[in-house]
Amino acid sequence: MKINELFSIDGKIALVTGGSRGIGEMIAAGFLANGVKVYISSRKADVCGATAARLVGQYGGECISLPANLSELDGVDRLAAMLRERESHLDILVNNAGVSWGASIDEFPELGWDKVMDTNVKAVFFLTQRLLPLLEAAASADDPSRVINIGSIDGIKTPVFDTVSYGPSKAAVHALTRQLAAKLVRRNVIVNAIAPGPFPTWMLSTGIGTGGDVDGTDWDAVGRRNPRGRVGTPEDIAGLAIFLCSRAGAFTVGEVITCDGGTVVS
After folding, report:
1. pTM of the model
2. Active site residue 39
3. Of residues 31, 39, 101, 166, which has the active-site annotation?
């Protein structure tokens, strides 16, 4: 039981949605650095392509951009079709694409509810459903395929921000993870979820008032409010994802694992 045997993901094929920035990019980078062929998807084709090229420049290997709008079922179908054209199987699916919407309860619009639920919950289910044939194609009892759904600590505790639909959408992702895990484990598809806390992402920067300026945000100040005294790093989230996709994580099923520096328990 050596480290490389327990935690190797070398030679796997993965799709990371929302992989052009933030937590999705961090996970994609961790996969690439450890020998995985990675497909990333996001709504903006130019941004997705630029991220794929930059990651290959940093880590080598193969990172392929498959842009798609997952807030619509047509986009989910297009992404699944593009992947089927390129691969006969899929080892890892990371359902990371997500959106939020900020407004007070009194002013929260239907659009903000529907967009968040469609992207964060509906797309997770239907993309997993559409890709099941690929996920099962090379999966076995000894080497099952993996699905990781990215939830949030806001689906566990009350959110700090006025993002009325975001917390319920992530709670739904956590519940969906358990249901999918129970149904798919006997089909050699293992499903788990990660519930991240504060990471230096575009989405969090909009919530704390720096308007998407990731580089201009004082993340040290944000981190001082966390029990660990810092925000998360790429190593934190990629390490957990790698564990879940490796032999070491092959008996962990249907869990929602926080990656938050102790926020929830504190």
Report:
1. 0.96
2. no
3. 166
